[in-house]
Sequence to fold (333 residues):
Amino acid sequence: MAHKVTSIPGEGIGPEVASAVRRILAATGVKIEWEELEGRTDKSTEKGQLVSQSAVDSVRRNHVALKGPMATAIAGGAPSVNVALRKTLDLYANLRPVKNLPGVKSRFEGVDVVLVRENTEDLYSGLEHEVVPGVVESLKIITERASTRIAKFAFSYAKKMGRKKIHAIHKANIMKLSDGLFLKSIRTVAKEFPEIEYLEMIVDNACMQIVLNPQQFDVLLLPNLYGDVMSDLAAGLVGGLGVVGSANIGDDAAMFEAVHGTAPDIAGKGFANPTALLLSSILMLDHLGERGAARSIETALEKVYREGVHTTRDVGGQAGTDEFTEAVIAALK
Ligand code: NAI
Fold:
């Protein structure tokens, strides 16, 4: 039976990379019935969000989506459609595997770490106000419910993927109540998974440790803000945001996305690199239980990068999107 998946190609280079990824997925033989939709609507809702209700309905129906980037105005303007989609669908877990791709210039080799970030609360709850002119307050919200569910997600994911060790990252020495509750909730869950080694590390030390010796880490479990910062830091260890995949996962739906933006400077020119969305689609195949196809694409991608003949300009190659896509498809065989 075919998997039904919502496709939101996105904007800028989104449609180019989404089409490349769909061609590669088709070449694996996995049957996917795509329902293609735009993520944005021109009608603003009461909250000023421009997220398309039909896209939300489609993801709720199909439970899985592959999404390209969408533009967001900086400082003012409409809220981010990307964030609105994640919030509306309650995609509380952000998953970011970070692994070297052969041939991609990076400062480290042998990095293979997965960051699991709580996606719904912490300082990103959006609860800010001006106390008096010149003084603002942003509220950091940590709940036992959200901390427990992200911990359950991280431990279950680690178990499913054969990972051995989880580090909870925190600053509970200073934020004793909020980060303290985050840790307390995780410790309770950790007891249910004795096969996985559980460790804790203060966030500033974790930042130093990951640039000194990234190979010591297996899975990092982080609240929203530290997770945001450390997941880009970790991507930088292996060559940047163009070579890592990402997923936002909830109990009822999962959205697999590229972490880069719409790249307006190169949109429509035919040399966008589909690697990030392709890595996200590998996570999607794992999520759909299509492990064989996921590993085939992983191996094909590594082959194309190792050979270095058909790679795109952003990673120092010469190829356009089509040539790269064809090379990955050829390497699948
Ligand atoms: P960007 O990631 O779009 O571009 C930064 C640089 O990286 C540009 O030089 C671009 O050409 C290059 N680049 C990005 N992806 C590439 C790819 N796949 N292949 C080759 N080169 C690539 O970041 P920027 O310029 O800050 O943001 C542009 C727009 O994208 C903004 O409106 C921003 O809000 C949005 N954005 C959307 C995201 C999402 O939908 N998840 C994430 C990040 C930004």
Remarks:
- The pocket of NAI is lined by residues 13, 17, 69-72, 82, 242, 257, 260-266, 272-273, 276, 314 (CB under 6 Å).
- The CA atoms of residues 104 and 132 lie 50 Å apart.
- The chain is about 40% helix and 20% strand.
- The longest strand covers residues 93-99.
